[in-house]
Amino acid sequence: MSRLDGITLGYRDRARAQAFYAAALAPLGMGALVEREAEVGFGRPGAAPVAWLLRPFNGLPPTWGNGTHVAFLAGSREAVEGFYKAGLAAGGLDEGAPGLRLHYADDYYAAYLRDPDGNKLQAVHYLGGDPATVEAEPFSHITLGCNDLERGRAFYDPVMASLGLARVVDEPDLSYGYGRAGSRLPWVYAHRTFDGRPATWANGFEVVWQADDPRQVEAWHAAGLANGGFDEGAPGPRSYRPGYFGAYLRDPDGNKLHAFCLAEGRDPLVRPTTE
């Protein structure tokens, strides 16, 4: 079954970025699992990396996107508070102290930071949540800024459907959320910006989906192009590693997306990140 595989985040100073994420993600049970010349992959021990720090592939400086943020799932209130305190101490910027966010849900306990490159992050603990969910899912959700919600829905409805995912949150004046049917936790939102300013895409940021097979990757790419997306790389084998088949798109607001599959029997624990 297709699923959210991870994200990439651009950096200017690798040592600074790596030190920040090592500190901020440690309370969430994550650490550096893969280190290469230009990238570092963070995740939980024994699992695949889900958050990659890298130099943007296009050689341009990284930027943060207005409307873009990543929400990590935390196993407790203490983990949310640890994320916030450690992130501030490691060079992050405050975007919202730990506390209940009752406008989201009665049990939504969260804190917000920006990393040293300006990327917006959140750690959230659902006070009534199932601990097994935290073990299975590193993310609560990812938000992508959207300047025209109807245009965004027209793009994401068919693109997510091609991966077997559904629109599970429908707030026509604010956002649309996509995930597995019946899930409380949509994986990705197309969302109007919180500050009311235009949404912008982030250079170096990418949302990565794992598909079931090459045909699904091809269907995902075709659905995106047919519904206002932009080609960033046609479906095909990639030289990242044996058995890797992927494609790239940008949504109508410029947010970069990637879908891939691995040949049957290939080890999924260490995979490449971006094109």
TrEMBL record:
Query: CDD domains, from UniProt?
Result: VOC_like
Q: Which UniProt keywords apply?
A: Dioxygenase, Oxidoreductase
GO molecular function terms here? dioxygenase activity
* Keyword hit for Oxidoreductase: yes
Superkingdom of the source species = Bacteria
Gene3D superfamilies referenced in this protein's UniProt entry, alphabetically: 2,3-Dihydroxybiphenyl 1,2-Dioxygenase, domain 1 (3.10.180.10)
Pinpoint the VOC domain residues. Answer: 3-126, 138-262
- Give the Pfam families listed for this entry: Glyoxalase
State the protein's name.
Answer: Catechol 2,3-dioxygenase
This chain's source organism reads: Tistlia consotensis USBA 355
Q: What is the lineage of its organism?
A: Bacteria, Pseudomonadati, Pseudomonadota, Alphaproteobacteria, Rhodospirillales
